[in-house]
Amino acid sequence: MIKYLGSKRLLVPWIVETVGRCEGAHRVLDLFSGTARVGRALKAAGHRVHANDHNAYAHTLGACYVGADARVWRERAERLIAELDGLPGEPGWFTETYCERSRYLQPANGARVDAIRNRIAELSLEPELEAIALTSLMEAADRVDSTVGLQMAYLKQWAARSHQPLRLRVPEILEGPGASSCLDAAEAAERVEADLVYLDPPYNQHSYLGNYHVWESLVRWDRPEVYGVAMKRTDVRERGSDFNRRGRILPALVTVLDRIRARWLVVSFSDEGYVTLVELRELLARHGEVREASVEHPRHIGHKIGVYDLTGRRVGEPGHARNREHLFVVETGRIGGKSPSRAPKRTRKLAVMP
Fold first, then answer.
1. Is residue 2 part of a domain?
2. pTM of the model
């Protein structure tokens, strides 16, 4: 899967085990699915998962790893990706924008991205098969990029991996049903029926659209206007999330939680968020008894690099190296409808992850 800020790669077993202890949690809605790493793991554990994310690249990953059934799509995907992997490069908008005007990929690999993406668009594939093909291309480009895992910037010197040729692989899709959507979180919370909702929302100023704008443009293939040294899509300025704004995140979270109809809530949140842990505990307690566990977790790689201005001059030092990831479990009492009126409950401690 792609390199990703906020990925729960190291915490997935803990999250899956926690969800597995929630009685009757057969249908799971992953409301902010991101790379779909958690949703895929929950599907592998036997849950019927619906992955939702409002960014197109994340929706594509969810459609591939959660929505697609390998029994239906694996053989066709293998043939398609073999065909796509044999295409010669043909430079176009992607190469010019992200390999010449900026340095995310080597131009030869950018030309391959252009050729493969254009061919995918020409084929008018079924949504699941297209998602598998686009995921394969996204991950192939990620393996030969020249960043530290964020697309806020690219490296001054080409990364060693960027010299490797771009090669497609068939994503490791799972057997079994699943679903995906590309909705605002509040809309998905209201529309999708589930026994349990897993929430891992953005919690500070870091925009996933801004951090992964290259993948958004690769998936949308809309050749947007771009700006700045990083060649960000102009709609990064327009499609801001309330979850990335200090004054709006708490009301946004209230709205989402109030619209959920599931019996269980499992919420992942960092101690670096705009919402304090005290505020979050009080908010969740409105919906039922809160159980909580936490684990120390390495911060993203950016903290190791330091702080630089636009000229590349170092202007600040990295902060602390680790934070704490908190996992909250709430039994709401809702069964396909609104929860009964209740007074706030106290918070109990879960077993801390080893």
1. no
2. 0.88
